[in-house]
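Hi support team,

I've been running sequence recovery on a batch of backbones for a student project. Most finish fine, but this one hangs at about 90% for roughly twenty minutes before it completes. I'm not sure whether the input is malformed or the queue is just slow. I've pasted the structure tokens below so you can try to reproduce it. Let me know if you need the job ID as well.

Thanks,
M.K.
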């Protein structure tokens, strides 16, 4: 019996090159402590074996990973230690290296989430490199269940 091709929505754990393919989305959320902003980043990720896939992650501004991503994208640290990304910096095409780790859901231990960890600032990787192709038609594409795994 032949099984249909399948690409799991969660990439395997490991190290990847992350390339920003779309401007971030900022969504206002409501929580028990009040309103807050969730930032969603859209990437093409490339594994060491050359496999490429789409990936996105929503991060809260107080998460240390948010600070690390901003630094990796060219953000500057101010005198208080806060990191800001100038509106003048075009982040599309910027790259960094990080790992993906599967983290258990806090409410359901049977579920896991793919999360970016160990973000490295790699100033030698320019945005003009074409080792990670841009998204088709200039748009981010959601992973589908019928794509071939890499």
């Amino acid at each position: 019996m032949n099984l249909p091709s399948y690409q799991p929505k969660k990439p395997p754990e490991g190290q990847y090159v992350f390339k920003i393919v779309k401007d971030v989305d900022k969504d206002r959320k409501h929580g028990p402590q009040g309103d807050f902003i969730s930032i969603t980043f859209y990437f093409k990720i490339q594994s060491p074996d050359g496999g490429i896939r789409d990936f996105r992650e929503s991060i809260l501004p107080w998460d240390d990973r948010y600070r690390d991503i901003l630094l990796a994208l060219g953000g500057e640290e101010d005198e208080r230690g806060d990191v800001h990304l100038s509106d003048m910096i075009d982040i599309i095409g910027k790259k960094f290296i990080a790992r993906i780790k599967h983290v258990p859901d806090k409410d359901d231990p049977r579920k896991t989430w793919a999360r970016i960890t160990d973000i490295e600032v790699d100033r030698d990787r320019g945005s003009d490199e074409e080792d990670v192709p841009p998204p088709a038609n200039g748009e981010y594409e959601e992973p589908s269940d019928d794509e071939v795994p890499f």
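--
Follow-up from support: It reproduced on our side and the slowdown came from queue contention, not your input. Residues 103 and 109 are 9 Å apart (CA to CA). No action needed from you.
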